[in-house]
């Protein structure tokens, strides 16, 4: 049966305190809208401190499961400045260690950012940093997965070919967090699915009108959800579906569960 979860992003963007995540996880709601797993965004005022680790561990002991989304503000693993790059890697390694403490099912990583510097050099730095973090996560038994990014940003890894070329150069079992909203902006949803679905561990599900990363609820934008779900089922994707909607998050969980039933 399909696993449909929910990201805490909507609480972060609403500037709710971290404790609200704990409250929401434990809240009672219709079973059809109840997330099977939660993705916690380890970012800013929602950073997972030692005390917060204990709160999540308490939930884990009650049967709740989690993934972790890495911090991303002021982080660039392709920074040509070695001091800043090391600082970014240190923050991400700390987040990986946190993921291990709560026995997270996956760790979501953003690639580095392109700058005005030499493309070949920063591309190499991006790749080296991904490999470093992949190995570090593996040493803790954590599954690291790289997210495809919004093509309207400076991030690396926005197109299927970016991943294909990476995997040609690096024979590792790196997984992909397939962000549907980002792929929709780049008009390459089906290209990603046809070429890389065997690497998907998670699908980030949210909607937009292909113009900006709006994080609408499912069905509020222009993504062809029936077509997307059909293709994922055809490719026998059996990973996690994590709703990243800021608007109507629980309704979106319910809609996605209904579309995936009885798969």
Can you walk through the features of this model?
The chain is an alpha/beta fold and 263 residues long. The chain has one domain (3-260): TIM Barrel (Alpha-Beta Barrel). It has helices spanning 9-13, 19-26, 50-61, 82-101, 119-139, 160-169, 180-185, 189-196, 225-234, 249-260; strands spanning 3-7, 38-41, 66-69, 107-109, 144-147, 175-179, 200-205, 240-243. Strand 3, helix 4 (82-101) and strand 4 (107-109) form a beta-alpha-beta unit. Helix 4 (82-101) runs parallel beside helix 5 (119-139). It is globular.
Work out the helicity level.
40-55%
* DSSP summary: helix tally: 10
Q: Could you report the average pLDDT, rounded to the nearest whole number?
A: 97
First-last Cα distance: 6 Å
**What fraction strand?**
5-15%
What is the overall silhouette? globular
Number of strands: 8
The number of domains is: 1
Q: What is the CATH architecture annotation? A: Alpha-Beta Barrel
Largest sheet: 8 strands, parallel, barrel
Order of helices and strands: EHHEHEHEHEHEHHEHEH
What would the CATH topology be? TIM Barrel
Tell me the name of the CATH class. Answer: Alpha Beta
Enumerate the strands of the largest sheet in spatial order, edge to edge or round the barrel.
1-2-3-4-5-6-7-8
pLDDT under 50 segments (min length 5)? none
Radius of gyration: 18 Å
- Structural class, please? alpha/beta
CATH superfamily: Divalent-metal-dependent TIM barrel enzymes
